[in-house]
From TrEMBL, chains A, B:
PANTHER family: GUANYLATE KINASE (PTHR23117:SF13), GUANYLATE KINASE-RELATED (PTHR23117). It comes from Defluviitalea saccharophila. Signal peptide: none annotated. Keywords: ATP-binding, Cytoplasm, Kinase, Nucleotide-binding, Transferase. Pfam families: Guanylate_kin. GO terms for molecular function: GMP kinase activity. This is Guanylate kinase. It is found in: Cytoplasm. Residues 6-183 form the Guanylate kinase-like domain. Essential for recycling GMP and indirectly, cGMP. ATP binds at G13, P14, S15, G16, S17, G18, K19, G20. Belongs to the guanylate kinase family.
Length: 204, 204
């Protein structure tokens, strides 16, 4: 039996890479828990406290920042978004691998503070494919699509800071690849030093 | 499609850990090639050049050392044993993951020269189990068994220099765990920088 403590698994990738759908597929398995973000924005219709988000006031959020309660946080459109440490650690101690779907800057911040976190970058099979997916959504203007592709190219430069690269040929295969990575990570020697001590201390 | 270049996979573990049997199980798969050692000892009955070993004279072996033709080498009982670079690299370029079953000192030497090599340490479920396996063989004296257990304990101190730890509960499962590790390693970002360049250079 290898180490049971849950691993922080961070999934990033350009808009259109399919990461959201892959995450939905992964968390169908019991061994994973999806990290729930804290936000200061108002709940939308149907959004539930503790399921979709933890909703906080600006003052509460800022107190969380100062207490070091957040693994990472950022401000977008005058609202704060962050990842609460307590929820992640609770899931980890229950042996769940915790999935965080966050963007590159936040991901690198988490890795800096938690070097044992695993960073996975999802890429589409090609940029042409990415463009087709963005166009296919039909929700974005040409200008926004070009902006997102430019952003995707910039993000590709950060991949060498990630641990793994998963090509999203199909959702099912990409989810399986992530399971494979997480299984291998549980066998990392550095995650199993306790096991070694246990074997060594055994009387025989 | 992730990177196709074969990976050097080094498998070590104490005598009685079952590593030899696991290696035999792994190399049933086409994707793997077993590294063939060079030795100065005489062929035993049934041993064939280029299948079991590459047989060389002491002079030829020493020339290989001086030319840097060996990834690692050691001398035991007045015979040299080593891993020829050319064979390993040939297999890698054909896309095969190359399995090296070598002891701890040699393994760390290979890792030093080839940081991209993957070091896997096989441990039995417990030291009691290890002792039982050594006794079960029926070929070793009590004294030698004690010596091997002492050696095993010393080797356990080196595990933190290994990349992965695989507990050998059963041969089949242990072999599967090694496949999982190798699959994950192929997705390492550092092994796929070419793929990123390819995606970035694509015209769209």
């Amino acid at each position: 039996m290898n180490n049971n403590k849950g691993i922080i698994v961070i999934i990033s990738g350009p808009s259109g890479s399919g990461k959201g759908t892959i995450v939905k597929e992964i968390i169908k398995h019991d061994r994973y828990a999806l990290s729930i973000s804290v936000t200061t924005r108002s709940p939308r219709v149907g959004e539930k406290e503790g399921i979709h988000y933890f909703f906080k006031s600006r003052q509460e959020f800022e107190e969380m920042i100062h207490r070091g309660d957040l693994i990472e946080w950022a401000e977008f459109c005058e609202n704060y978004y962050g990842t609460p440490r307590s929820y992640v650690e609770k899931m980890q101690s229950e042996g769940k691998d915790v999935i965080l779907e966050i963007e590159v800057q936040g991901a690198l911040k988490v890795k800096e503070l938690n070097p044992e976190a695993v960073l996975i970058f999802i890429v589409p099979p090609s940029l042409t494919e990415l463009k087709n997916r963005l166009i296919g959504r039909g929700t974005e203007k040409e200008e926004i699509i070009e902006k997102r592709l430019k952003r995707a190219l910039e993000e590709l430069d950060m991949i060498n800071k990630y641990d793994y690269l998963v090509v999203n040929d199909s959702i099912h295969e990409a989810a399986n690849k992530i399971h494979t990575i997480v299984e291998a990570e549980h066998m990392k020697a550095t995650r199993n030093l306790d096991l070694i001590e246990k074997i060594k201390k055994e009387r025989f």
